[in-house]
Specification:
The complex is a heterodimer.
Chain A: H1 5-13, E1 17-21, H2 30-40, E2 55-59, E3 65-66, E4 69-70, E5 84-87, H3 94-104, E6 108-111, H4 121-137, E7 140-142, E8 148-151, E9 156-159, E10 167-174, H5 177-189, E11 194-199, H6 208-216, E12 223-228, H7 234-244, E13 250-254, H8 268-272, H9 275-286, E14 289-291, H10 294-306, E15 314-319, H11 322-334, E16 338-339, H12 344-351, E17 364-365, H13 372-383, E18 390-395, H14 403-414, E19 421-425, H15 432-439, H16 448-469
Helix pairs in contact in A: 3-4, 6-7, 7-9, 10-16, 11-16, 13-14, 14-15
Chain B: H1 3-8, E1 12-13, H2 16-25, E2 33-36, H3 39-49, E3 53-58, E4 71-75, H4 78-95, E5 103-108, E6 113-122, E7 126-133, H5 136-139, E8 144-148, H6 153-162, H7 166-170, H8 180-196, E9 200-211, E10 214-217, E11 220-224
Helix pairs in contact in B: 3-4, 6-8
The chains are: A alpha/beta, B alpha+beta.
């Protein structure tokens, strides 16, 4: 290829012009949804939705016009340059399309079409054929058998997902297309914003490793979340992850953990090393964080994208109720973190304004009648305490509770503090205070355990960075 | 055969002695051992390697040595070693009159914490290295940790710290623990050995015995890759 690989992937995420090959006028067809998504950002009626600003060229030999756009019978007839092609035609036509793309000079293709290696030997043969042409023509491929690619900052929805996620700092790469659409819906409920959203399908060409390297230097990405079912080349992935982790935190959800691991080996080691043990080991060696549920994946990504890494593992919990505070403490302990020991002078300082019945230790229970101001004062003291590396703030609804004012004061009191803070507004779901915390970069995670887990991700990140900086890890 | 030659011999499983020779060449301590042909030789060997020692019958026909009365442990003096030689041979002959008796193996008896170290190949990531506590910990609890080879010193120490039975390494109930650095050296040596010799398909050191700074491979097994294209 004439240009470097990064420039090649730029064509997927920062194209100036896009052709939709297999564009359709018929509502409900993938080729229709892709056109509409490119034009408007979403196929749903949404106020403020905005589409891709560059040129869009529908390609379909049996139509003259689609959604007001002139339609071409072949990509070769398109007058201007085409940076990216989104391919939705049936699998058997894809090889010809690739040849035409080559002639046109288009060097990037998102192949949404299914019917390749996921569907048996004939499909696998077709996939090899497509790859052969692509490598001959210098074309990079995302897919086939995928949902497509979304980049929010330039309003690019080159997919058939009916919604586009909110813009934000997380890049998500998924081997499952269905999970992508589910996650978009989930992201609205949890105020998760994405910079890039990629369904990579069969990973015939562009894979997890390529995207890690690309997002490592993407200015819109602060954290990378991966959903992986399998890797083809484990060593290549490790190499890419090792290069990426010093730049951006990487969180991985890997499914297929419980595969009965005993392969036909005669040694102890062989019988103990199911394939999941290998994945687990490899992820650890790269400094990526492995998680085990979808919820953890995005909780961790959100925390890592917005909050600074923790300098140590000593955590303070601030709460207006005993139970949730203890639950947070239990979960911190389970994750291998410690409850910070509050020095005498800090206890004394807290004594000066907290009611006598406060816990006088960590978890810092500032009692059921805690006012927003009490939260604010307490957080100011703990933020300044050298013995505290991170703070988990919990609010439960009690008679005196004012969720919104408390959220505001929490944000104010920790502004500029170089220590991570996570929050759980327990039993206050759907209130504006939750969204407010998220919008101010304090991950609000509804339950004490989730806020503790997110803190554990920040402690992990701190440890990984210290190791890398200390040269302990080659 | 030299360790190098053993590893080049291609297909198959190396014997315990061959496997231990390969480990020694890689810088891993193995417990000393020698073959005695008569009681005097047994006493001399035992004296040389230091007490206590273990003695085992060596005969191709006798597979279950303990059943044949062919094993004595905890031998503490040269006289006992000489006596053990005579009684082991006598019991073995009684157990299996037709067996060809090659001699009696005298082995340094390594005590302490029983551990396991291994290497095996994964289809996605290539060779992995494993560490765990031996015996019930590995059999029942599968309390082991893995890394992709090659590993660095930090990885080796992490592997040791990751196992649930970590306290046993540190020393529990008055029992002396094992030097983490000593174990890490073995892990690094195994990682290097396998990295240099990718034809090693599987490797087990079981047990690796650790007592303070002494970390010794007592039993080992190396399986080599078959000829090209096989497995």
């Amino acid at each position: 290829m004439a240009q470097g690989m990064e420039a090649g992937l730029d064509r997927f995420f920062k194209p100036r012009s896009i052709a939709v090959i297999g564009a359709s006028r018929e509502a409900g067809k993938v080729g229709n949804a892709v056109c509409e998504n490119l034009l408007r950002g979403t196929t749903k009626e949404i106020l403020h939705a905005r589409g891709f600003g560059g040129a869009i060229y529908p390609v379909n030999p049996r139509a003259d016009e689609i959604m007001g756009l002139k339609c071409y019978s072949s990509i070769k007839d398109v007058p201007g340059e085409v940076d990216l092609a989104v391919v939705v035609v049936p699998a058997r036509f894809v090889p010809t399309i690739m040849e035409e793309m080559g002639e046109k000079g288009t060097r990037a293709a998102v192949i949404i079409s299914a019917g390749f290696s996921e569907s048996g030997e004939e499909g696998a043969r077709l996939e090899r054929e497509v790859l052969r042409i692509a490598s001959k023509q210098g074309i990079r491929i995302i897919g086939p058998n995928c949902l497509g690619v979304i980049r929010t900052h330039n309003h690019l929805n080159a997919s058939f997902a009916d919604m586009m996620p909110e813009p934000g700092p997380i890049s998500f790469v998924s081997q499952s297309g269905a999970l992508c659409t589910a996650v978009i819906q989930y992201s609205f409920e949890e105020s998760i914003g994405f910079s890039n959203f990629v369904s990579i399908g069969n990973k015939a060409d562009v894979d997890d490793a390529d995207l890690l390297e690309y997002f490592a230097s993407d200015e819109e990405t602060q954290a990378i979340a991966l959903y992986i079912e399998s890797l083809k080349d484990g060593r290549r992935f490790m190499e890419a992850a090792k290069k990426t982790v010093p730049e951006k935190p990487v969180v991985i959800l890997k499914s297929g953990r419980t595969e009965a691991g005993a392969r036909a080996t005669s040694s102890h080691t062989g019988s103990l090393s199911g394939s999941d043990a290998a994945y687990e080991a490899a992820f650890r060696q790269t400094g990526a964080l492995r998680v085990y549920t979808i919820m953890e994946l995005f909780d961790a990504a959100k925390a890592l994208a917005y909050q600074p890494p923790a300098k140590g593992d000593r955590i303070a919990v601030v709460t207006n109720a005993g139970g949730p505070g203890v639950m947070a403490a239990d979960q911190l302990y389970t994750r291998g973190l410690r409850l910070a020991e509050l020095p005498k002078d800090v206890v004394k300082e807290l004594d000066s304004f907290l009611p006598p019945a406060w816990s006088r230790s960590n978890p810092v229970d500032i009692l059921g009648d805690a006012t927003p101001e009490r939260y604010g004062e307490t957080l100011r003291v703990l933020s300044g305490c050298e013995e505290v590396d991170g703070i988990v703030v919990i609010l439960t609804p009690q008679v005196m509770t004012r969720p919104m004012e408390t959220a505001r004061i929490v944000v104010e009191s920790v502004r500029g503090v170089r220590k991570p803070v996570t929050a759980a507004w327990v039993g206050l779901s759907g209130r504006p205070s939750e969204d407010y915390l998220d919008s101010e970069g304090i991950p609000e995670l509804t339950f004490p355990e989730r806020a503790a887990d997110a803190m554990a991700a920040l402690v992990h990140r701190g440890r990984v960075l210290r190791r890398i900086q200390g040269g302990e890890w080659s | 055969m030299s360790a190098e030659a053993l590893l080049k011999k291609g297909k198959g499983v190396l014997t315990v002695e061959e496997s231990k020779a390969v480990l020694r060449a890689a810088g891993i301590r193995t417990n000393r051992s020698g073959m005695a042909g008569n009681p005097e030789e047994a006493a001399r060997l035992a004296e040389e390697m230091g007490f206590p020692v273990v003695m085992k019958i060596v005969s191709p026909q006798i597979v279950h040595k303990t059943e044949a009365g062919g094993v004595e442990t905890g031998i503490n003096t040269a006289e006992d070693a000489a006596r053990a030689f005579t009684s082991i041979v006598k019991r073995a002959e009684a157990y299996s009159p037709e067996a060809e008796i090659k001699g009696v193996l005298v082995e340094e008896m390594a005590g302490g914490v029983e551990m396991i170290v291994g290497a095996a190949r994964d289809p996605t990531f290539g060779h992995l290295i494993m560490f765990g506590l031996g015996g019930i910990f590995v059999e029942v609890f599968r309390d082991v940790s893995f890394r992709v080879i090659p590993i660095g010193e930090r990885d080796a120490l992490d592997m040791i710290d990751e196992i649930r039975g970590r306290a046993v390494i540190d020393g529990v109930r008055g029992q002396r623990g094992v030097s983490r650095e000593g174990i890490a050296e073995v892990l690094l040596a195994v990682s290097g050995l396998v990295e240099r010799n990718p034809q090693i398909r599987e490797l087990d050191i079981n047990p690796l015995m650790g007592d303070g700074d002494s970390v010794v491979a007592v039993d080992a097994r190396i399986v080599l890759e078959g000829v090209k294209g096989d497995g």
